[in-house]
Structure formats: structure tokens, C-alpha cells
Amino acid sequence: MNSLFKALNDPTRRQILELLRVQSLTAGEIADSCQVGKPTVSHHLDILRQAELIEEERQGQFRRYHLNTSVVEDVMVWLSGLVEAPKPAAKKAAVALKRLKPRTSP
After folding, report:
1. Which pLDDT belongs to residue 4?
2. What is the CA radius of gyration of the chain?
């Protein structure tokens, strides 16, 4: 999780994610869009890969990068759990259901 937040902490990496949200791109296309050098883009792509936010696919001599939406979805679920407080009625119902559950013998 730390590598994920480290990856999201940089504005250039967030810009790369926005670009990849629209379409898959090569490192050169990303560098052109972000107006940074290719070595800088390679560094950012490496950090995004380590956080599993992007995936790469070889196409001939090029590598195309695309957004890994499953990791983003997992983070969204985790974050939404932090902001949603457990409802007292739901807690009581869970306790009641636990009491009603038939016990199995060993």
C-alpha cells in the first residue's frame, strides 16, 4: 500500500495515469504528452509498475502501457470503508444473527 501512495504522490505520475485512463501509450508518447524527457518517464513508469497501477505489454519493439483498473478499484473499496461508519442497527443485526446461527458439533 505504501508504494501505491508513493506513486500517487507525484503530479507527473498522476498525469500519466490520466493519460492511460483514455488509452494505452508507449513511453515516447507519454514523454511527448507530459513534456518531460524519456529517462524521467521511465523512472515514473517504474514507480507506477511497482505500485501495480499500470501494466506493460510488448508490441514488437515497443512497450505499451495501460492502467490497471483492478488495483484502482481495490483502493476505492478500501478508502470507502474508511469513510463509511458502521451503522448501529447493522451491528446489532450482525450480533443477533451470530447468536441464531446453529452450532455444529465436532
Report:
1. 87
2. 21
Q: Which residues contact 37 (CB under 8 A, 6 or more apart)?
A: 31
Residue 51 and residue 6 in contact, taking contact as beta carbons nearer than 8 Å: yes
Q: How many residues does the chain have?
A: 106
Q: In this structure, are residues 51 and 10 in contact, taking their beta carbons and an 8 Å threshold?
A: no
The b-or-e profile of 36-51 (16+ CB within 10 A means b, else e) is beeeebeebbebbbeb
| β partners of residue 67 | 54
The CA-CA-CA angle for residues 87, 90, 94, to 5°, reads 140
Backbone phi, psi, residue 61, to 5°: -85, -5
Tell which residue, 46, 54, 52, 50, has the closest CA to residue 20: 54
Q: Place 93 in a pLDDT band, splitting at 50, 70 and 90.
A: low
